[in-house]
Design brief:
2 copies of one chain form a homodimer. By secondary structure, the first copy, chain A, is of the alpha+beta class. Chain A has 7 helices and 11 strands. Chain A has a 4-stranded antiparallel β-sheet. In chain A, strands 2-7-4-5 form a 4-stranded antiparallel β-sheet, with no helix packed on it. In chain A, strand 10 (about 200) and strand 11 form a beta hairpin. In chain A, helix 3 crosses helix 4 (about 115-140) and helix 6 (about 170-180) packs across helix 7. At the A-B interface, strand 5, helix 3 and helix 4 of A face strand 5, helix 3 and helix 4 of B. The structure holds a DNA duplex.
Chain lengths: ~210, ~210
DNA sequence: CGGCGTTTTGAGAGAGCTCAACATCGGTGG
DNA sequence: CCACCGATGTTGAGCTCTCTCAAAACGCCG
């Protein structure tokens, strides 16, 4: 899984890869309206979630009341993997758009791991990738400069051609994800475009050849 | 595992919990001098590492040449779990002090997971905790204020009494870990002490009752 | 058309960074 | 035993950069 809007391809964590049909059948679907909470920090854990449609974000609220986006999951990705091993959620899950999710009960999923080593291993791999991605995220957060942080994001999320990025949310959302004020992001993008480093067209950004 | 110097107890990830003796026996020990690299980003992955003595840090170097500390592992903790599922390391591992590590070959560890669901699950749980801790770390990085960031760290790493923190490295290391310049950290600690919020005594910090 | 949220641009202030000087503490070797 | 040296710890001062507060243009939807 991943944390950056455009990087689904980097570590898309489809349930298909490891969760047997037997479990997927018992899953319950649930729909959420934009802004609705799937679960809240401190609530008892139910199980694993898969986003079927829409987008769900994992967030925490720091003491100053600011929302910190930990992760943004799109269709095919799973949510709250860590909750399988803990009794309570440790962050909030909120629908960013109208969304549909599937719930795989904790009990059933854990049972699968007992019986099916392949599934367990695939799940481990998934978590391991998540760890890597979170570390990348921390690396990003260490960058003070807004322009460097944006560049870091853009290069990391460039498409197959290495130059094109498709934003899937609003720029304001992206700002939150990058840990910048939205004004700072607007200004930075404007400056990068003005300097010719990038080109913008709607929700598409293109990097110019070599910096 | 964890990322903060004093929080070993929060998610100490001892190998003893899940890795069978059969594997632990084939492990190879290796010693490192302070500053020596255990592995470098891009190198072929060997397996899982356990820190026996000393401290090893996981880092990346950003484009400005600054070192970003992703993780600091102490005795009993494991390193590079994600490398089990990838061909190359994605960050550098460097000994912060003279250190001894044990190497558990990838092949053997993965074999254990095939045969022993309990081990696989314990490993997953370990990774899941790591994910949680990394998220906490991201939350921390979102805090702009140096004093708030330090408070966040202190409360998160307070000992059993909830008021005492034992620093295990230098303040300079801590600054890097917190993503602050060492000057800023010194000043902040001095200010907190001056205001009576904390007391310092060598490498020990005590929080005053309630803020 | 009216309203709401996003996108933009402006101006000012605060906070941390950088550069710099100095103190302190261990360890090393003469 | 003491002088030297490097790294850590500490404090000072200015500067840059982002945040915050403000205001306005734009776009979308009922």
């Amino acid at each position: 899984m991943m944390e950056t809007i455009g990087s689904d391809r980097i570590a898309a964590m489809s349930v298909d890869n490891w969760l047997p049909l037997t479990v997927r059948i018992v899953a319950i679907e649930r729909t959420l309206k934009a802004g609705e909470a799937l679960f809240r920090r401190g609530a008892k854990t139910e199980g694993l979630f898969e986003v079927v449609a829409g987008r769900v974000r994992l967030t925490r609220v720091d003491r100053s009341g600011r929302e910190v986006v930990l992760h943004l999951a799109g269709p095919g990705e799973t949510l709250a993997e860590a909750s399988l091993f803990s009794a309570q959620y440790h962050c909030d899950a909120i629908a960013s758009t109208n969304a549909t999710v599937r719930v795989y009960p904790k009990r059933e999923v854990l049972a699968v791991f007992e019986e099916n080593p392949k599934a367990a291993q695939a799940f481990s791999a998934t978590l391991a990738h998540q760890v890597m991605n979170l570390r990348t995220r921390i690396e990003q957060r260490n960058i003070r400069s807004a322009s460097e942080r944006v560049r870091h994001f853009l290069t990391l999320n460039a498409g197959d051609d290495g130059r094109t990025i498709n934003l899937s949310g609003t720029l304001k959302d992206l700002a939150a994800e990058l840990g910048l004020s939205h004004e700072a992001l607007y200004r930075t993008l404007a400056a990068l475009e003005h300097s010719g480093e990038i080109k913008r067209k709607g929700s598409k950004i293109t990097l110019s050849k070599r910096v």
